[in-house]
Amino acid sequence: MLLPATYGRRLALSLIRGEILRAVSRENVENHQRAIEAFNRRDLDAFLVLTDAGAEFAPSSGGMEGGGVYRGHAGVRKWWSDLLEVLPDFRLEIEETRDLGAVTVVHARNRGQGATSGASFERGIWHVVEWREGKGVWWQAFQSEAEALEAAGLRE
Asked: What is the pTM of this model?
């Protein structure tokens, strides 16, 4: 049988843990937004501060650039360079952010214009990022909400 004092301490510890997890979760959402803002400012250093040195980065445009999955900071630098060479004014506009604890899901709108063709494009995209200790360790972009939620471990 739990004594009231023991129960009170356990409840207090449980509440503290919950507050810590909520604070970390809010930090992940803020970091995801900061990463997109850094990209739009073309601030690679600020983007890398939010990216784990061993991160796996799989943008939706990887096939277009021929890169597929990029690994670590060197891979992110390569993706950054490859993408902006083809789409120098590429931007993301956040439409929705979902807080799933250690994972964030962002629905964004991609916009840009081809460097060679001058053709403009706009499309929706879903980003899923897994966070550990304030840094993205796994970044992947998806064409649909269903794919993004499945990757995040949820169903639509």
From this structure: 0.79
Reported as type and span, the H/E element at residue 2 is: none
Q: How much is the average pLDDT of 25-44? A: 94
Considering only CA atoms, give the Rg of the chain: 19
What is 4-151's CATH number?
3.10.450.50
The encoded tokens of residue 142 equal 């998806």
Q: What distance in Å separates the CA atoms of residue 102 and residue 132, rounded to the nearest whole number? A: 7
**Whole-number Cα distances in Å, 91 to 4, 9, 66:** 56, 49, 20
- Assigned token pair, 45: 């250093």
Contact between 86 and 115 (Cβ < 8 Å): yes
Dump the DSSP string for 42-89.
Answer: T-HHHHHHTEEEEEEEE-TTHHHHT--SEEHHHHHHHHHHHHHHH-TT
